[in-house]
Write a structure and sequence with these properties.
Structural class of chain A: mainly alpha
Structural class of chain B: alpha+beta
CATH topology of chain A: Multidrug-efflux Transporter Regulator, Chain: A, Domain 2
Order of helices and strands of chain B: HHHHHEHEEEEEEHEEEEH
Strand content of chain B: 15-25%
Number of domains of chain B: 3
Shape of chain A: globular
CATH architecture of chain A: Orthogonal Bundle
Radius of gyration of chain B: 30 Å
Helix content of chain A: 55-70%
CATH class of the largest domain in chain B: Mainly Alpha
Order of helices and strands of chain A: EEEHHEHH
Number of strands of chain B: 11
Shape of chain B: elongated
Distance between the termini of chain B: 71 Å
Number of domains of chain A: 1
Strand content of chain A: 5-15%
Largest interface: A-B, 32 and 40 residues
Strand order of the largest sheet of chain B: 6-7-11-10
Helix content of chain B: 25-40%
Strand order of the largest sheet of chain A: 3-4
Radius of gyration of chain A: 16 Å
CATH topology of the largest domain in chain B: Helix Hairpins
Number of helices of chain A: 4
Oligomer: heterodimer
CATH architecture of the largest domain in chain B: Orthogonal Bundle
CATH class of chain A: Mainly Alpha
């Protein structure tokens, strides 16, 4: 039997998403993404929202924002704060891990 | 099927008020939310807590559950008594609730049919919704990021069988891991998530890359770090030494008078990409034991001739 091998899309630095891509991937309305941008949770390139390009990490941030809102009832400024602190925590943990592996 | 003690899950007594329940849920949800928590079993605990809360926050479900009595203990073999829920009317889950497919067989045996029948979408002909996204981690070796690899990933997907019961289906996906992936990076497999409802599209599967602990290498983005032991004479005089890399050994020049802990960079020998990462060899001077008379004599000679005080900066 031939084994099927799936290839996915790596969400790396070369990946750019449009507003529509992001809405589809999160099953959310455009307004929700625009609120995230207004709050500074996401930082797209390009002036007008029709030209917005989001880096791939934006998708992960949007997913986490979605889950935090849904599961913990956090409002957007709270979500923005949690995301920033999580990022700092990750960096601190990675740094610690390089100094003290294991 | 095992009985689940929802009070126990939330650390509450059976006399807890609705306020107590809400407060306990909030606290536990913050502690175990998989995006925030680093507890190893966060995801499982979070689902348990969500399930317990879905029952206890709803006065009707709670009193039906309470009626099962205190004779049951967590882990007991459980079958719902016939007509156990007679006289109760479940309103189903609110729109903000988590997907019911996250909940246990125990939950669906008690509340499964009811919430499905009274769910928000029942009766809307032609209703469709996109399937849920699934998330999983895939463990790879540092070497895989250099060369690419194929990994078999076992996923447990909850689904409804013909009789409307929730069952877990195991499926194995063979996924290509392209070279150049970093820790925490995600791969999206379109349409490999949960099936859609009606004509809705299937959700996506997101795989998050996680590196296994490696005895030699540590990763930092696309950079790779390695501790490189060197001898005192290699450190003092300089030398060309072989260094292992996930791509095979290379030769590295140790400059004269290298100290311990110096980061020597091997440009573009890290994880490939645009731009590729670097490999850093961190020098560790190791000292041979003075295990023979000849070795002792050499150390004494150094002591006499080098007049070296490594603690001069300490003022002693």
């Amino acid at each position: 039997m031939k084994i099927q091998i799936l290839s996915g899309m790596v969400l790396d630095e070369q990946t750019e998403l449009s507003l529509g891509d992001l809405c589809r991937a999160c099953s959310q309305h455009e307004d929700w993404v625009r609120e995230l941008v207004a709050e500074g949770v996401l930082d797209p390139i390009g002036g007008d929202h029709r030209q917005w390009r989001f880096p791939a990490e934006a998708l992960q941030r949007a997913h986490i924002a979605m889950r935090l809102q849904r599961d913990l009832d956090i409002n957007l400024p709270g979500v923005a704060l949690v995301l920033d602190l999580l990022e700092e925590l990750d960096q601190a943990r990675a740094r610690l891990h390089r100094i003290e592996p294991g | 099927m095992k009985f689940k003690d929802y009070y126990d899950v939330m650390g509450l007594g059976r006399d807890a008020t609705q306020d107590d329940i809400r407060r306990a849920y909030r606290k536990l949800a913050r502690k175990f939310h998989p995006d925030v928590s680093k507890e190893t079993d966060a995801e499982i605990r979070f689902k348990e807590i969500g399930e317990a809360y879905a029952v206890l926050k709803d006065p009707e479900k709670r009193s039906a559950y309470d009626q099962l009595g205190e004779n049951w203990h967590a882990g007991d073999e459980f079958r719902p008594p016939p007509d156990w829920d007679a006289g109760f009317e479940f309103r189903g889950r609110g729109p903000g609730d988590r997907n019911a497919s996250d909940f246990s067989d125990f939950f669906s045996s008690l509340f499964g049919e009811e919430f499905r029948q009274s769910g928000p979408h029942r009766g809307h002909a032609g209703f469709q919704a996109r399937g849920e996204d699934h998330h999983a981690k895939v463990l790879i070796d540092v070497e895989d990021a250099y060369h690419g690899a194929t990994r078999g990933i076992v996923l447990r997907t909850p689904e409804l069988d013909g009789a409307g019961h929730l069952t877990a289906r195991e499926r194995t996906l063979n996924v290509k891991i392209p070279k150049g992936v970093k820790q925490g990076q995600r791969i999206r497999l379109s349409g490999q998530g949960a099936p859609g409802v009606g004509n809705g599209a299937a959700g996506d599967l997101y795989l998050e890359i996680e590196f296994k602990e490696h005895p030699l290498y540590r990763v930092d983005g696309r950079d790779v770090l390695l501790n490189l032991p060197i001898t005192p004479w290699e450190a003092a005089l300089g030398a060309n030494v072989p260094v292992p890399t996930p791509d095979g050994p290379v030769s590295l020049t140790i400059p004269a008078n290298t100290t311990s802990g110096r980061k020597l960079r091997l440009k573009a020998r890290g994880i490939p990409g645009q731009p590729p990462g670097d490999l850093y060899a961190i020098t560790q001077i190791t000292v041979p034991e003075a295990s023979s008379d000849a070795a002792k004599a050499l150390y004494r000679k150094m002591e006499q001739e080098l007049a070296y005080n490594p603690r001069s900066k300490l003022g002693v």
